[in-house]
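Complex 585.
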Amino acid sequence: MTAPALDREAYRRLIEDDRVHGSLYTDPAVFDDELTRIWYRTWVYVGHESEIPQPGDYVVKSIGPQSIIMSRDRQGAVHLLLNRCSHRGNQICEAARGNTGALRCHYHGWTFGTDGALLGYPFRQGYGPDTPKSALGLGRVPRMGSYQGFVFGSFAHAGPSLLEHLGAAREAIDRLVRLSPLGRVELTAGWLHHEVRANWKMLVENETDGYHPQFVHSSIFEVGESHVAEVYSERSAATARDLGGGHTEHDLRAHFRRMDRPLAWFGTTEDRLPDYCRAMREAYGAEKAREILVEGSPHIMVFPNLFIAEIQIFVIQPLAVDRTVQHVTPLQLAGAPDMNRRLLHQASGSVGPAGFLLADDSEMYERNQRGVVAREPEWLILRRGLNRERVDADGHLAGAATDETTQRGIWRHIRAMLTEEVPA
Amino acid sequence: MTTTAPTISRTEVEEFLYREARLADEGRYDEWEALWTDDALYWVPSGDTVDPHKQISVIYDHRSRIALRVAQLKTGKRHAQDPRSNVAHLLSNIEVLGEDGAGTHTTATFIAIESRSRGLTTWAGRVEHTLVRRDERILMSRKVVRLVNADQPLPTLAFLI
Ligand code: FES
Ligand SMILES: [Fe+2]
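Predicted structure with fe (ii) ion bound:
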């Protein structure tokens, strides 16, 4: 039984410009609408090409609750297939990853190529000539697109292209990959899967919430060395920006330009990473390399589920109105082994279920979820920074580092999608 | 080999493991931290961890990071442990696997039941210790916690497992 969908008028009422209704986080009917109008419609990040480097490689990923096989076929092409046998519906892949010549369903033995085509079924005599194999391949995510190795899928058969969807977020992804001397990221350092009892939007909104770090993360700021406290203070030169399309970012570049020290954003210095810095200078020239190493890595939430968090990549997977899994992997840069060791080490401390940072973020998601069931007051207030919001040179709404410009931007897009005012 | 008495007896192993679990359960952070050697490693692999230097772990703490973890807990602002989880560790199937230059190697199975507002969470798996004797005291230089569900989505794990 699915709950009845809410009409468009309801969403216009529940999502105002500067406040949103608590039921949006708790009502199963809203969650169902979000699946059909957002998750099964827009471009959703699925996986990275570096996770399946060889022909025959596959990984099991997701689009919301849907299990998706991302595979590389014999010719090297990438596919997004649904993890469901076309015979009688068995889930096909149990292992999270593998390399195979054929995907086999173990119920009745049907086999499929890593391109999704049906290769064969046992006891062929039971099927007459009116059962064409060509029509019985695995289900496929209708549209697939890739940008800088980041593979996205959309269940909508038509709509904006991936590049149109990414819009201004594209430039941030470019800024990420240029941190590699070879211009490529590799998501090969394994994943942590962190499950929280909270609505997915709480995670999305928190990823570019510059107001919370001083309070949620004060324990680690007190005992560890971190530049993060400074970035999210009233003194910060960083900008919270609504990039449109639900994408939001914290542009930290102004903050780090003011510090004017290569790798300050990573809490280290050039002499600690001599090989990486040399490779960067060789790749980009001394001047450009310095600029890249001063400005650092982007902090951007690509709607609805890819969070590029400077030194790690998060993927948000909604499972139910109050259940979400946050998958996270350390950023790894092609051609930068010494940098990669440090990236891994730092991520191991910060993120995941036991992370110095993320354990407290997730505690807040869950408290937030328990809080919003309250009957009174009904609204969450998103007014912070309205008094000082501006339009920047690129035409994006921008606020101070601690402002709710980002949350308002996320909700503006969610409202447009739930009322179906925008194409996917 | 049968002629060499083990440096650390089975009784001492059991007493150490039970005490370590109790100090963690009771949030006696300083006493728990004092059980570690200076070159210690506290490791909780994830399902993807083959080599902890190549893949991310749930916890991969050398001594200084163990100290940081404890210091964070002691600030009173580690929200994921404020209030502290109520935890009961049960240890069983304790075996002393042998001894080498690194110390005495033990393995055991464990269940840790955690209670907080989220509800009850069952944590279970195998725990491996390397124990050494230093100035009459037994310390741990290595503790590896292999969760049975390391490859599955895990809830927040902010207590000392
Ligand atoms: S359900 Fe897969 S072969 Fe029958
Ligand atoms: Fe946070």
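Residues 349 and 355 of chain A are 5 Å apart (CA to CA).
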